[in-house]
Specification:
Blueprint (H helix, E strand, L loop, with lengths): L1 H9 L2 H21 L2 H6 L11 H17 L1 H11 L1 H19 L5 H28 L6 H27 L3 H21 L13 H16 L2 H17 L1 H4 L1 H8 L2 H11 L1 H7 L9 H5 L1 H17 L4 H19 L5 H29 L5 H5 L3 H22 L2 H11 L14 H12 L3 H12 L4 H24 L2
Helix pairs in contact: 2-7, 2-8, 2-9, 4-7, 4-21, 5-6, 5-7, 5-10, 6-7, 6-9, 8-9, 8-17, 11-19, 11-21, 11-25, 14-15, 17-19, 18-19, 18-25
């Protein structure tokens, strides 16, 4: 314990300010991102936008994929113009972007504003990580990055709780709160953050960017690295269903009112805290958020356990556990079983996710570690893009409650006005359908569940995850040992 305290004292003020900014940035991002799928696809009479699942998937998947590619360029900008200047620009872009997201409603405007937010996030992302790297050394890096990862998840846990409460008042407040969190960072970087010592990049910006792309091309010419990155896209495609698909699935299908009633009998205070919308049900984003809670509590213990295993073996087992957990979340209408499934998923996530970068560093030649690590963002970009496709058109066809109800209405020969932007809302459509079927909303949901089996989406997620595990196993046996 004393050595741990000694290590903490070695960190300069810049390290702690960088971590503080990371906390507020993750607070802002996840406070917006976890409920985003609900906002994009929810009924317009609740203040949501009423987009289709396919539109939602395309918007989220494409923009976040671009976000993970941007650091290629923004990292060079930070090296050229300095960390503080880059952070100030990033926070101005993010704060204005978050606020604007709550003010626009057309699909094209939301898409453009979200791209603006992605630009700000892309400017921020490489700077803080580089600051942590430059303020740690061989004796402090392990603890330093452990603290950083814990701070990431604390921010990711707090943000959605605040957002869930605020959306009960107005969806626009969710985005305003994210903007305010970023403005806190703007104050920190202007008045408190001191840029760590670094080598000034005197190379012309265009040449720096050209060099970066050339280096990535060189790294990707290594087939071992290229194959690994392609395979890991499958993991991130499966993993990101936590944000893209699960909130909507919970909102549409899971009996969170029954869960609320059961919790209320034992812990009324907890039930009230989870019912952020005051409707007698557990809010979908509060359930999704237990993943971050499990990570904050258990990450150190899990990391300690898996550190004795080879990174690839830990990844294979972790991804398998992750796949089982994520698949089970999409299999049931029982809220308590869902929490257990998220717990399983979190164990797999904690075992596999941190090992990805460690593995890339291990397979890199000693003189090309930084070069190879520069490619680690590619699976994130690909995984987010394909996650958007799965949660979009695929989910809409197999599992979307609105689409399945429209199908049931047509098959039964009923006539209900189409859902439209300025007229009939989703909620009005569901109310009218319930009247025609002679069912209340709970009975209607169960009828659709038993008739059309929307849980089938779990087969898709399971297939992607198991395919990734199989390919990694073959990669280990045939490529690494060939």
């Amino acid at each position: 314990m004393s050595s741990f305290a000694v290590t903490l004292k070695k960190f300069p003020a810049s390290f702690w300010w960088a971590n503080t900014m990371e906390l507020f940035e993750r607070w802002a991002w996840y406070g917006m991102f976890i409920p985003l799928a609900l906002y994009l696809t929810g009924s317009t009479d609740t203040g949501a936008l009423g987009f289709s699942q396919a539109e939602k998937g395309t918007l989220m998947g494409t923009v976040v994929a671009i976000l993970y590619i941007l650091p290629l360029i923004t990292g060079a900008l930070a090296d050229k113009f300095g960390f503080r200047k880059t952070l100030i620009v990033a926070y101005l872009v993010l704060a204005s972007g978050y606020y604007a997201m709550g003010q626009v409603s057309s699909y094209s405007h939301v898409f453009l504003v979200f791209l603006w937010v992605a630009l700000g996030a892309g400017l921020f992302k490489p700077v803080v990580q580089a600051t942590v790297g430059k303020t740690t050394d061989e004796t402090t890096s392990s603890i330093g990055f452990g603290i950083f990862y814990m701070i990431v998840n604390i921010g990711a846990f707090i943000g959605p709780i605040v957002a869930s409460i605020l959306r009960g008042w107005s969806w626009s407040y969710v985005f305003t709160a994210s903007a305010i969190a970023i403005l806190v960072n703007l104050v920190i970087v202007i008045f408190f953050f001191k840029e760590p010592d670094r080598e000034k990049n005197t190379e012309p910006l265009g040449k720096s960017i050209k060099t970066i792309f050339k280096n990535i091309f060189v790294a990707l010419s290594d087939m071992k690295l290229l194959l690994f990155l392609i395979i890991i896209v499958g993991f991130w495609t499966m993993y990101n269903q936590l944000f893209y698909t699960l909130p909507v699935f919970i909102d549409q299908w899971v009996h969170t009112a029954a869960m609320f009633d059961a919790i209320h009998k034992v812990w009324p205070w907890l039930a009230s805290a989870l019912d952020t919308q005051n409707v007698g049900a557990v809010a979908a984003e509060m359930l999704v958020n237990v993943d971050a809670m499990f990570i904050v509590i258990l990450q150190i213990a899990v990391s300690t356990f898996v550190m004795k295993y080879k990174p690839l073996n830990a990844m294979i087992v972790g991804i398998l556990i992750c796949t089982i957990g994520m698949s089970l979340t999409l299999l049931t209408q029982n809220g308590f079983f869902l929490v257990l499934s998220i717990f399983i998923f979190a164990l797999g996530e904690m075992s596999s996710s941190p090992k990805t970068s460690e593995y890339i560093a291990r397979i890199a030649p000693k003189d090309k570690v930084a070069l190879y690590m520069g490619c680690s963002f590619l699976p994130y970009a690909g995984g987010n893009f394909f996650a958007g496709q799965i949660s979009g058109g695929v989910y809409e066809k197999l599992s979307d409650k609105v689409s399945l109800l429209e199908k049931a209405v047509a098959e039964n020969g009923f006539v209900i006005p189409a859902i439209s932007d300025g007229g009939f809302t989703q909620n009005e459509y569901f109310t009218r359908a319930g009247e025609l079927f002679g069912m209340n909303q709970l009975e209607l949901t169960d009828f659709l569940w038993q008739t059309y089996h929307p849980m089938r989406i779990w087969y898709v997620v399971l297939g992607i995850g198991l395919g990734t595990v199989l390919l990694l196993w073959l990669y280990d046996k045939l490529i690494l040992k060939s």
